[in-house]
Amino acid sequence: MAAFPNNTLRSFKPLSPTFNSSTVRNSVLARNSVSQVPSSTGAVSAKEKRSFPGKPEADVVVIGSGIGGLCCAGLLARYQQDVLVLESHDLPGGAAHSFDIKGFKFDSGPSLFSGFQSKGPQANPLSQVLDALGETIPCASYDSWMVYLPEGEFLSRIGPTEFYKDLEKYASANAVREWKKLLDAILPLSAAAMALPPLSIRGDLGVLSTAAARYAPSLLKSFVQMGPQGALGATKLLRPFSEIIDSLELKDPFIRNWVDLLAFLLAGVKSNGILSAEMIYMFAEWYKPGCCLEYPLHGSGAIVDGLVRGLKKFGGRISLGSHVEKIVVENGRATGVKLRSGQFIRAKKAVVSNASMWDTLNLLPKEVVPKSYLDRTKTTPQCESFMHLHLGFDAEDVRKDLGIHHIVVNDWDRGVDADQNVVLISVPSVLSPDLAPPGKHVLHAYLPGTEPFDLWKGFDRKSSAYKELKAERSEVMWRAVERAVGPGFSREKCEVKLVGSPLTHQRFLRRNRGTYGPAIQAGYRSSS
């Protein structure tokens, strides 16, 4: 499980009226609704970045090497399909790639994970894909992160009992009672949530066919184990988690705020926007005996490296620096793609897009897209964009007990999804020292999908006004870093200082308006 952004591979079918049923099967476009699980360490040769591997055709052409694209491509290759992944960037990983500057290896995506070491049908979906590809990701285990809230700052530990101590100290006795009431109500539902892995969770009627076809035995077993009351409660899995909160009459402000924060870290939306199944799955991972968090050794880029190795192991190919200009559609089906260079790459069976729904729409010929789909895509609400702060600095001057993760909430009343309010900080060199030169630390702070793109629209990236806006809008991250790292930290002494804006997201990641992804409320239009 990767906390914010949550990666979900979904499929959608922008079909012209002339497509028949067989064409539907051969022209599914899969997309990754999120962007933020990590990517390559950069262990790709310069020659490989520039060369085109093999013949310009494949059974399936995948546009983009984000986590969703690589998972899709790897599994297709695993099942004997000839697959070619085309990536515009010179590194794989899409919106989750990592990069190296002056010996500091930076994650551009999230670094809060759990479930990588689990196996079987109830394991982390990404772990299932890696397992199918014969790849493992060595991880360092830990059980806590620092939180800085209006009520105070404390080390929050996962597990069934530790959080009660924090509630007693920083909230109230009523908060303790309500938290116990919540766990008592939802943990019995975890068997059903775990029996229905996130890969199959959809907020539309399509979930019935998905679940019934593959997961009926495990679901039935779970319902029997839960008994009548638990089985009845399981019907809430595909409803917003806020409905469970409301049905339990939980009113303590700290509990409601904390649940919103957890939902936001998991999926980029508050509890009224996330499916109950996703939250219950997370609760089962984080609040059960013996649970732990994990960080991939050698950086989160090891995940993408593992996916690329798995893809190649089964004969799949990836071409970096291959910018797709358009999807070619002939006689009602996608037959390939045209690169910016003018080269045509033939797809014998399907074209799969790992780009956002809006960017994929721009790749398709306008005349083949049904108006209903065009209107639905254009009216789908978007999450906002990101601000990033990447720093490399000397470890000697900062606190010795520095942990890997820090979460800063400035004002509960504004909401966790308000701009300039929540800052997430990761210092992965704490657990994987090889990410920075000896005696140094690497740090990534970001505003998670809350930075309004409209503030940046139209700015010239070379202008002084743009630089001034970057300085202004990054100040909240600098202050959060200073709070987390300690009084010995100095901005001036940082050896690497990089500020990324929504325009950076839009430019490097080819994301429409630099967006995080669709802002779809749970159970509403999530099948697009």
Q: TL;DR of this structure?
A:
The protein has helices at residues 21-26, 46-50, 67-78, 125-132, 162-170, 173-186, 190-195, 206-214, 216-233, 241-247, 253-267, 276-286, 301-313, 357-363, 371-379, 464-485, 502-509; strands at 2-3, 9-12, 29-32, 57-63, 83-87, 98-101, 104-107, 112-113, 139-142, 144-149, 152-157, 293-296, 317-320, 324-330, 333-339, 344-353, 385-394, 405-409, 422-426, 440-451, 496-500. It has 528 residues and is α+β, with helices and mostly antiparallel strands. The strands form six sheets. The chain has a seven-stranded mixed beta sheet with strand order 11-10-18-19-20-17-21. A six-stranded mixed beta sheet has the order 13-5-4-16-15-14, sandwiched between helices. The protein has a two-stranded antiparallel sheet with strand order 1-8.
Your description of this structure?
- This protein has 528 residues and is α+β, with helices and mostly antiparallel strands.
- It folds into three domains: 144 residues, 3-Layer(bba) Sandwich (FAD/NAD(P)-binding domain), CATH 3.50.50; 123 residues, no CATH class; 127 residues, no CATH class.
- 34% of the residues lie in helices and 22% in strands.
- The strands form six sheets. A seven-stranded mixed β-sheet has the order 11-10-18-19-20-17-21. It has a six-stranded mixed β-sheet with strand order 13-5-4-16-15-14, sandwiched between helices.
- A hairpin with a 2-residue loop joins strand 6 and strand 7.
- Helix 3 runs parallel beside helix 4 and helix 3 runs parallel beside helix 13.
- The longest helix is centred in the C-terminal third of the chain and has 22 residues.
- It is globular and about 65 Å long.
